[in-house]
Amino acid sequence: MSLMADLLSTLFERRYAAAETRDDRPMRQLAQDLLTSRGEVSGMALARQILDRYAARTDDRKRSFFEYLGRELDIDADAMRSALEAYGADPSKRNYGRLMAASEPRRQELARRLNQVPGATGRLVEMRADLLRLAGDDPALARVESDLRHLFASWFNRGFLVLRPINWESPAHILDKIIAYEAVHAIHSWDDLRRRLRPADRRCFGFFHPVMPDEPLIFVQVALTRGIPGSIQGLLAEERPELKPGEADTAVFYSISNCQAGLAGISFGNSLIKQVVEDLSRELPQLKSFVTLSPIPGLMRWVESEGLGDRAGSPETLRLLAAHYLINAKRREEKPLDPVARFHLNNGAFIHNIHPMGDLSPNGLTQSGGAMVNYLYDLKRISKNHEDFANNNKVVAAKEILNLARAPLPAPQLRTGTDA
Predict the structure, then answer these.
(1) Considering the domain 160-406 in this protein, what is its CATH number?
(2) pLDDT in tens, 257-275
(3) pTM (predicted TM-score)
(4) Which of 70, 93, 271, 417 has a 20 to 30 Å separation from 409 between CA atoms?
């Protein structure tokens, strides 16, 4: 079936390519024609030309295209107001259809029509990555970004995603992308990658989309261990002894990497972890604990902002500071300041332990003074923990960590100046 699908796709692509002639009209004219086109072949030709010409543009010209989308293909407020009044007076199917049509900006339909071209989904994801990079504080471009995020949330719904194991026998082009996309603990070489994928006590899983089969969307690296580890150095040591999978009692999620900048804000991690837990539980029913070994990326920035930078040198004090940061440091909406904490707590995990010497790499020392944290996924408590966090902003943590967060912070260093 896959071979037949590839063959038909190739034949259609050749048919559309043969029908195309170079069209030098402005991009906005091509976009308008695509929105009004009724012919399948002509619509495909227009969509391909728009995508090809966009990809060849400089950043300034890409931004001007986004400005056109944001301002000229926006919602018609008068038409929407009229449709809303008609629906309020008579909520018929016809008036509901008018309201729905009026409330959707035309750029959403343009994106759908562009997406008819084979391979267009990945190119639209790249387009949103450009938009996120170029938008600044322009409200028109922010509207375009919101529309693409809205469409992608449907196109990349969990129901369309495929969970695939990634191992040393996976295709080289996939392995090469794992090296490139690893965002937590850099993979320095193919030997380094082999140590993470080949041993029997290591696993890696990624989500893929059928229209982007060679592009991982997100992947997680897992170590099978006895007991809950407290340092990434030990977990990734070159000479560590390999554990037989049947002897492991713990699955450690030690790196989760989003791969596509253009899919920022589209959440896959929650589904990924739950699916991997289910798969590992079936494969290795003796596993008792599912836990992370996670970075604390904003810790040192917070410590410095509190004037406590000189107090973070000792492991005991760093652990105290990390507990305060994870539990007490909040954003405006009373969620934890730390993004990794927000992610795992919202998924239903709880803070199990803090390790002040967990990551002694240059990046680990810069971001968190070397500290790492375990978030534990207790299968019996995940739903309750999630509800408590989502509805009441409750940070669930082990008693020892809660006690640390209640203990007084060390006095900040007094900053003295020099008289002129």
Answers:
(1) 3.40.630.150
(2) 999 999 999 988 889 999 9
(3) 0.86
(4) 417
